[in-house]
Amino acid sequence: MSEPDAVFSTVTAPVHGRRELLRIGGVSILGALAGGHRIAAASANPAARHCIFMLLQGGASHIDLWDPKPLAVPEIRGPFRPIATAAPGIQFGELMEATAAVADRLCVIRSMTHRFSNHIAGTYVTLTGSNAQPDQDREAHADDFPGPAAVLDALQEPVPGVPRAVSLPNWLSIPGPSNRMPGQYGGFLGSRHDPFVVEGDPASPAFKPLSLALADGMSGERLSRRIDLSRRLDSAARLLERHLAGRYDQLTASAYDLVTDGRVRRALDIGAESAAIRDRYGRTKIGQSLLLARRLVEAGVQFVAYNAFNQEWDTHGGLLGRYRQIVPPMDHAFAALVADLSERGLLADTLVVNTGEFGRTPQINKDAGRDHWPNAYSTILAGGGIRGGVVHGSSDSKGAEVADAPVTPADILATIYQRLGVSPDTTLRDRLDRPIRLSDGRALPLG
User: Fold this and answer.
1) Structural domain containing residue 107
2) Domain count along the chain
3) Of the candidates 113, 153, 277, 320, which lies 20 to 30 Å from 428 by C-alpha distance?
């Protein structure tokens, strides 16, 4: 990592003095909102204005959720029976009862595939589309390919007072000096394009991001005068650190916009929702996080990422009991999100993606679980002009290999970019000013 990027890269580190403004309550702003230069992007015809990207990190089982194999032997079909859905001819696993009721608004892609069986590598290819990596654990670094939050922030003009992209309710992490899992950050575009992160459990009474506000007695005008005075008093020191000064000024202006504008602050006030709506999503971390995602979209945020806690869906053993714990909250929340967006007239403008970094092995293992399996798995799309009630592609009779119409993570990202008005053919520039194509994937014709 280059020295300029390193200064603002680790948002969880303590900040002091003039940088204290950049971390407010449960919200991390370091690097997230600086404007910087914008890369000229080839335009595409947008079919959506927003995207909510759910990553069930750890690898959910496609066979037990989205692609049941009722005719297979028991050690392949698993412990859950298939159920009918609102889309004729499409079945889900029995724990997906709520989502089955909105299947007429879903596109079920059953032919996802890539070659990485490691969690970190699988997550990286899911978030970047890049195959240029080892199939092993590693930490994020400055030469990584950028994630979608950073790409969208770099390619499009900022909206004052509203971040381009928000991630919640946590960063994905990996044990190591930086604790940073690759794929989430700005990579070679620079840390100024990292997403805005809201940390904490929004289902908890202790969730208080509302400190994103002016201190008592501090008006917007008064804060503006203080910032101006600070700039003038500190001008001599800033001449010695011009690059950092520019970065700091951008971040300060962005933080000031967030505090005084109020749209994000109001969106994060989840208590403003009725008890009925909160109950509809479920009083769980994923339920209230997806409710926040809907509120942030309404506030004008373009890209909202939900990150399941590190490898939450990694079930090598005891799949029956574990899935009875973790699937119903996800099913409840995802179905509520799709239905709520539809009822509010937002689904046509909002592309929802529900995926893991890979699937699970067809064969139940000796510990009554399933292991990592990238050869064939499922991703679910809804909204954003995507036709619902359909299946795209298929896996074989065991759910082991793609049988028809293979789709890669790069294809999903190309589809997201195209639907949000960014051509997958756009040329990015890395830190050495080398041209790099945004995506080698193909946008899927799912309209």
Assistant:
1) 3-437
2) 1
3) 113
Q: What is the residue-level pLDDT of the chain in tens, covering all 447 positions?
A: 333 332 222 233 333 333 333 444 566 544 433 334 455 455 666 789 999 999 999 999 999 999 999 999 999 999 999 999 999 999 999 999 999 999 999 999 999 999 999 999 999 999 999 999 999 999 999 999 999 999 999 999 888 889 999 999 999 998 778 889 999 999 999 999 999 999 999 999 989 875 554 445 555 555 455 545 555 555 544 444 454 444 444 544 555 566 557 898 899 999 999 999 999 999 999 999 999 999 999 999 999 999 998 899 999 999 999 999 999 999 999 999 999 999 999 999 999 999 999 999 999 999 999 999 999 999 999 999 999 999 999 999 999 999 999 999 999 999 999 999 999 999 999 989 999 999 999 999 998
Looking at residue 335, its amino acid is A
Residue 360 and residue 108: Cα distance in Å, rounded?
17
The total of other beta-carbon atoms located within 10 Å of residue 398's CB is 16
Task: Confirm whether 446 is domain-assigned.
Answer: no
Mapped onto helix, strand or coil, the DSSP state of residue 388 is coil
Tokens representing residue 215 in the block: 């201190």
Q: From CA 41, how far away is CA 427, in angstroms rounded?
A: 7
Cβ-based neighbours of 284, under 8 Å, separated by 6 or more: 203, 329, 332, 333
Chain-centroid distance of CA 67 in Å reads 23
What CATH number did the domain enclosing 37 receive?
3.40.720.10
* Contact yes or no for 18/248 (Cβ under 8 A): yes
Q: Is the backbone of residue 300 left (phi > 0), alpha (psi -120 to 50) or beta?
A: left
- 292 part of a folded domain: yes
d(CA 213, CA 367): 50
Q: Is 377 helix (H, G, I), strand (E, B) or coil?
A: strand
Q: Are 127 and 57 in contact (CB under 8 A)?
A: no
353 DSSP β-pair partners: 53, 381
Which pair of structure tokens corresponds to residue 297?
A: 């979209």
- 291, containing H or E segment: helix 285-299
Q: How many other C-beta atoms lie within 10 A of the C-beta of residue 175?
A: 8
Tokens of 206: 């202790």
Closest C-alpha to 376, from 119, 117, 93, 110: 110
Q: Is residue 447 part of a domain?
A: no
My answer on whether omega of the bond before 158 falls inside 30° of 0, hence cis, is no
Q: Do the Cβ atoms of 1 and 141 come closer than 8 Å?
A: yes
Residue type, 78: G
Picking from 38, 142, 145, 76, the residue whose alpha carbon sits closest to that of residue 439 is 145
CB 327 within 8 A of CB 315: no
Rounded CA gap, 128 and 147, in Å? 5
